[in-house]
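During the no-cost extension, the postdoctoral fellow (Dr. R.K.) reprocessed legacy sequence entries with the updated structure-token encoder. One reprocessed record is reproduced below for audit purposes.
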Amino acid sequence: MASKNGLYKASELFQAQAHLYKIMYSFLNPMSVKWAIDLQIPDIIHNHPQPITLSELVSALKVPKSKQTCVQRLMRLLAHIDFFAIVKFQDNQERYALTPTSQLLVSGTDHCLSSMVRLLSTPILVDSYNHLAKWTSGEDLTVVETALGPESYWDFIHQNSAYLNTFNEAMESDSHVVRLALRDCRSVFEGIGSLVDVGGGTGNTAKIICEAFPELKYIVLDLPQVVSGLAGSNNLSFVGGNMFKSIPQADAVMLKVYHSTRIMMTPFSCLN
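Re-encoded structure tokens follow.
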């Protein structure tokens, strides 16, 4: 507790220092997850016949001996945040196993979110949050506008083909989880005759929903360069346009966004 003159005891300040450093070093958590994806560690563990030992993992990664201790520290960090699990068998060796979270990053599954992690850890998104103070004091509506200047996030995406591919892959991977959600949320779409998916991209979510609801008339609206050449079906059509100018008429509108980009591209007043 604070004293009358506002000072704290030395023991309290040391605890506060530890807390502060814990907060500041928390950026290592997502960067460690990206490290695991870049080295395909979830795949290695998934394909191993049983939870993997550190020596087996190091051998599979083919890392220099000088980096083995670093691998161990990073794996322990990921286990500490429940990304991996540490288990022990009869040999009493620590072994690493997948958790539901790391299972989401196994390649080739219908719920792999590796591309979303890569998108969320790109420098353009991460660095934007370094501009929060400048954004707060300025007139820009979003943080990304402050970071990029007059160029909008969408302008940046479509002027950088590699980033556009990363963005589209991330959106598609996120949409795969919709198939799982539909198992328990079918009532959401019952009674709707038509639906327009604003910013529906290449239609991955649309195809999942159309498959589950063949009577639903589904329209995907996205920028012309995104939907150009995409073929629809009996109940699925693609429309090129700008959601800020007009949206096709339908019984319902769906706008699926992921939170990090939403915070960066939308005024906070619209997030309520």
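The two ends are 35 Å apart (CA to CA). The domain at 114-270 is CATH 3.40.50.150 (Rossmann fold). The remaining legacy entries will be reprocessed before the final report is submitted.
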